[in-house]
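cache lookup: miss for this entity combination. No prior model stored, computing from scratch. Input as submitted by user K.M.:
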Amino acid sequence: KAGVTQTPRYLIKTRGQQVTLSCSPISGHRSVSWYQQTPGQGLQFLFEYFSETQRNKGNFPGRFSGRQFSNSRSEMNVSTLELGDSALYLCASSLGLAGLSFDEQFFGPGTRLTVL
Amino acid sequence: KNEVEQSPQNLTAQEGEFITINCSYSVGISALHWLQQHPGGGIVSLFMLSSGKKKHGRLIATINIQEKHSSLHITASHPRDSAVYICAVRGTGTASKLTFGTGTRLQVTL
């Protein structure tokens, strides 16, 4: 069974641009969670999607958004990029809703975003 | 004060040593996770605990809910165990999210 895949793996953007990152969960998994990892703040929860609905959201500005498609694939978008958005963005999938189930989360390799 | 505190921040051990990494948290939780992150970024979930103790190979994880404390033990450490180990807790309620510790960087030398 294929693991969680994320595209692209590396991305360089300039301030003010927007970016879309993609995450394909493990087949059969319905929950996708997104995380941001920076050297200063560590790992932080962005949001979770389940059955095409955002079920939970972290403390990030509205420039960060996401969606989930009927095949459970998910995208996250960051508009008006700032230098501080440079980070490793990780997604993780699980069978059920992460907050309610005790299903294991499987992480993707991440997308490393650099904002110049 | 962070909700999740890990110690030590850095740890160097010789091959074969017994290693303990500690995690303390200050909120009520439904589960605690131990994650392993290798250079390059990939994260692997090692354990998910809500009580007691779990063992997988040379790794053992324990949790004491009353004391709000968990430990990750590595027996007979090996250089391939070198990685960052991250503790994360999931709060209670339907909108619970994962809150992460800052990680423990482990280097195992020959």
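stored under new cache key. The interface with chain A takes residues 30-31, 33, 35, 40-45, 48, 50, 86, 88, 90, 93-103 of chain B (CB under 8 Å).
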